[in-house]
From TrEMBL:
A molecular function GO annotation: unfolded protein binding
Organism of this sequence: Propithecus coquereli
Gene3D superfamilies (alphabetical): 1.10.287.370
UniProt cross-references to InterPro entries, sorted A to Z: PFD_alpha_archaea, Prefoldin, Prefoldin_subunit_alpha
GO cellular component: cytoplasm; prefoldin complex
Pfam families given in the database record: Prefoldin
Name recorded for this polypeptide: Prefoldin subunit 5
Family from the record: Belongs to the prefoldin subunit alpha family.
Top-rank taxon, per record: Eukaryota
Gene Ontology annotations of biological process type: protein folding; RNA polymerase I assembly; RNA polymerase II core complex assembly; RNA polymerase III assembly
Amino acid sequence: MAQSINITELNLPQLEMLKNQLDQMYVPGKLHDVEHVLIDVGTGYYVEKTAEDAKDFFKRKIDFLTKQMEKIQPALQEKHAMKQAVMEMMSQKIQQLTALGAAQTTAKA
Protein backbone atom coordinates (compact mmCIF):
# COMPACT_ATOMS: atom_id res chain seq x y z
CA MET A 1 0.00 0.00 0.00
CA ALA A 2 2.56 2.56 1.09
CA GLN A 3 4.82 1.92 -1.88
CA SER A 4 2.14 2.99 -4.35
CA ILE A 5 1.97 6.44 -2.74
CA ASN A 6 5.55 7.36 -3.72
CA ILE A 7 4.18 8.87 -6.93
CA THR A 8 5.26 12.41 -6.02
CA GLU A 9 8.90 11.36 -6.20
CA LEU A 10 8.47 10.53 -9.90
CA ASN A 11 7.56 14.14 -10.85
CA LEU A 12 5.52 13.03 -13.86
CA PRO A 13 2.60 15.21 -14.96
CA GLN A 14 0.67 12.17 -16.11
CA LEU A 15 1.61 9.06 -14.20
CA GLU A 16 0.64 5.82 -15.88
CA MET A 17 -0.86 3.30 -13.54
CA LEU A 18 -2.92 0.18 -13.48
CA LYS A 19 -6.39 0.65 -12.05
CA ASN A 20 -7.87 -2.34 -10.28
CA GLN A 21 -11.23 -3.29 -11.73
CA LEU A 22 -13.37 -5.68 -9.67
CA ASP A 23 -10.30 -7.08 -7.85
CA GLN A 24 -9.59 -9.30 -10.85
CA MET A 25 -8.59 -7.24 -13.86
CA TYR A 26 -6.21 -4.33 -14.29
CA VAL A 27 -6.57 -1.72 -17.02
CA PRO A 28 -4.13 1.07 -17.91
CA GLY A 29 -4.92 4.58 -16.76
CA LYS A 30 -3.29 7.96 -16.23
CA LEU A 31 -3.11 9.97 -13.03
CA HIS A 32 -3.30 13.67 -13.91
CA ASP A 33 -2.96 15.13 -10.42
CA VAL A 34 -0.10 13.53 -8.52
CA GLU A 35 -0.52 15.86 -5.54
CA HIS A 36 -4.01 14.61 -4.62
CA VAL A 37 -5.09 10.98 -4.50
CA LEU A 38 -8.22 9.04 -3.56
CA ILE A 39 -7.62 6.35 -0.99
CA ASP A 40 -9.91 3.51 0.00
CA VAL A 41 -10.51 3.83 3.75
CA GLY A 42 -12.69 0.73 3.87
CA THR A 43 -16.26 -0.44 3.34
CA GLY A 44 -16.48 1.33 0.00
CA TYR A 45 -15.57 4.81 1.28
CA TYR A 46 -12.92 6.88 -0.47
CA VAL A 47 -11.23 10.03 0.81
CA GLU A 48 -9.27 12.58 -1.17
CA LYS A 49 -5.93 13.34 0.45
CA THR A 50 -2.66 14.88 -0.50
CA ALA A 51 0.06 12.38 -1.32
CA GLU A 52 1.83 13.18 1.95
CA ASP A 53 -1.36 12.72 4.01
CA ALA A 54 -1.99 9.44 2.19
CA LYS A 55 1.51 8.24 3.12
CA ASP A 56 0.81 9.10 6.75
CA PHE A 57 -2.55 7.32 6.61
CA PHE A 58 -1.02 4.13 5.21
CA LYS A 59 1.85 4.24 7.70
CA ARG A 60 -0.66 4.47 10.58
CA LYS A 61 -2.73 1.67 9.04
CA ILE A 62 0.32 -0.58 8.66
CA ASP A 63 1.35 0.14 12.27
CA PHE A 64 -2.18 -0.61 13.52
CA LEU A 65 -2.39 -3.89 11.60
CA THR A 66 1.07 -4.93 12.77
CA LYS A 67 0.08 -4.35 16.40
CA GLN A 68 -3.16 -6.30 15.91
CA MET A 69 -1.25 -9.22 14.40
CA GLU A 70 1.17 -9.21 17.33
CA LYS A 71 -1.78 -9.27 19.75
CA ILE A 72 -3.51 -12.27 18.19
CA GLN A 73 -0.41 -14.31 17.36
CA PRO A 74 -0.15 -16.02 20.80
CA ALA A 75 -3.82 -17.04 20.68
CA LEU A 76 -3.39 -18.40 17.16
CA GLN A 77 -0.35 -20.40 18.20
CA GLU A 78 -2.28 -21.86 21.13
CA LYS A 79 -5.22 -22.78 18.88
CA HIS A 80 -2.84 -24.39 16.40
CA ALA A 81 -1.27 -26.48 19.17
CA MET A 82 -4.74 -27.55 20.35
CA LYS A 83 -5.71 -28.49 16.79
CA GLN A 84 -2.56 -30.58 16.44
CA ALA A 85 -3.33 -32.39 19.70
CA VAL A 86 -6.90 -33.12 18.58
CA MET A 87 -5.68 -34.36 15.19
CA GLU A 88 -3.15 -36.64 16.87
CA MET A 89 -5.81 -38.02 19.24
CA MET A 90 -8.21 -38.63 16.34
CA SER A 91 -5.48 -40.40 14.39
CA GLN A 92 -4.80 -42.69 17.37
CA LYS A 93 -8.53 -43.45 17.74
CA ILE A 94 -8.84 -44.25 14.03
CA GLN A 95 -5.86 -46.58 14.24
CA GLN A 96 -7.36 -48.30 17.29
CA LEU A 97 -10.73 -48.72 15.58
CA THR A 98 -9.08 -50.02 12.41
CA ALA A 99 -7.03 -52.51 14.40
CA LEU A 100 -10.10 -53.57 16.39
CA GLY A 101 -12.12 -54.05 13.19
CA ALA A 102 -9.33 -56.09 11.64
CA ALA A 103 -9.05 -58.22 14.76
CA GLN A 104 -12.79 -58.88 14.78
CA THR A 105 -12.74 -59.79 11.08
CA THR A 106 -9.97 -62.32 11.61
CA ALA A 107 -11.68 -63.73 14.72
CA LYS A 108 -14.88 -64.41 12.73
CA ALA A 109 -12.99 -66.22 10.00
